[in-house]
Amino acid sequence: MKGAAAKMSNETATATEQPKSAVNFDVKDEDLPEFRDMKFEDINELHLDHPGANDPVYRKRRDYIASLAKKFRETGEITDVEYNDEEQNIWRIVANRLEEIHTRRASKFYLQAKKDLGISNDRIPQLSEMNRRLKELSNFRLAPIEGLVETRGFLSWLSYRTMLSTQYIRHHSRPEYTPEPDIVHESIGHIPMFTNRNFADFSQFIGHGACVATDEELEELGKLYWFTVEFGLIEEDGEIKAYGAGLLSSYGELENAFTDNVERRPFDLKQVINTAYDYSKMQPLLYVIPSYEFLKDETRRYIESF
Ligand SMILES: [Fe+2]
Q1: For the segment 250-299, what is each residue's pLDDT rounded down to a tens digit?
Q2: Rounded alpha-carbon distances, angstroms, from residue 118 to 125, 154, 175, 298
């Protein structure tokens, strides 16, 4: 491995030494830092308010699936999870219910992308299969991770067109809710959007930014990520649609986004990076982009100013 890889060993997983403005978006396998160098600190364990926190069977299962992500960092190979009937059942409940809302509320690009990736309501998709398709479609990649990691580490991997993704699934007692990312949030919320070249490039720009950002700039990037990747809306053919993962993977948030409870403002980057949010509440304010290309161009200009 070259360049950044050597520099990364024994440090955190932050991908340093990235150019701020890459003209060449093609990241080749040999340009990737070794995954074993992803030495994240403070990977979040199960929160006490997680619905599965007091269920020892669930905790054991989650720990096992998390251990596969740790193994990935030694081997670089994604291990498929043999999801059990209970897990498949949670998937079917959530996927079917979300799909009904998606047909009315999701970005048309997203709806097509989900099909292109072969994500169905019948079974939980494997990261390995989505990873193969993503590479073909937009040269983006998935890397398993066992929990929430710190912002700079997480975002800076986007500069290598790599998204860190969990594999375990939420607790069966509350199929509609999870306080942490899970395979539903990743594969129904995030992963389809990375098949969009403009969105993938925009994500990579956020990654470049995270590599060189001051702490203050990193906080701004976090807000940009929140109001786009997680809670973004887009105007398509005169209608407002959702493309953010936090919306697309939550029936409550998705329905709420289109009610009078929410102010939907045209996207203004300066404003977005100065807007505070509360992750524990329904979002009262969302921003609407005119196109994915616009988002990419605005973001590039912004991180070039760092
Ligand atoms: Fe997310």
Answers
A1: 999 999 999 999 999 999 999 999 999 998 899 999 999 999 999 999 99
A2: 8, 26, 22, 31
Query: What is the mean predicted confidence (pLDDT) over 2-20?
Result: 39
The residue annotated as part of the active site, out of 220, 249, 250, 298, is: 249
pLDDT digits (tens, 9 = 90+) for 231-248: 999 999 999 999 999 999
Of 244, 282, 248, 278, which Cα lies nearest the Cα of 262?
A: 282
The conformation of residue 13, written as its DSSP 8-state character, comes to: S
Q: Is 185 a catalytic site residue? A: yes
Active site residue 249: yes
How far apart (Å, rounded) are the C-alpha atoms in residues 176 and 208?
34
Per-residue pLDDT at 36: 78
* Residues ≥6 apart with Cβ < 8 Å to 21: 208, 300, 303, 304
Catalytic residue among 156, 185, 187, 203: 185
Query: What is the 229 CA–ligand 1 centroid distance (Å)?
Result: 7
| Pair 114, 192: CB distance under 8 Å | yes
Does the pLDDT value for residue 302 go beyond 60? yes
**Could you read off the pLDDT of 174-215 as tens digits, one per residue?**
999 998 999 999 999 999 999 999 999 999 999 999 999 999
| Residue 161 neighbours by CB under 8 Å, 6+ apart | 25, 27, 138, 139, 140, 141, 200, 203, 204, 207
The one catalytic residue in 230, 250, 253, 298 is 230
Widest CA span in the chain: 52
| 230 carries an active-site annotation | yes
Catalytic residue among 50, 102, 190, 208: 190
- What dihedral angle (degrees, nearest 10) is formed by the CA atoms of 181, 187, 188, 193? 110
- DSSP assignment string, 60-112: HHHHHHHHHHHHHHHHS-PPPP---HHHHHHHHHHHHHHHHHHHHHB-HHHHH
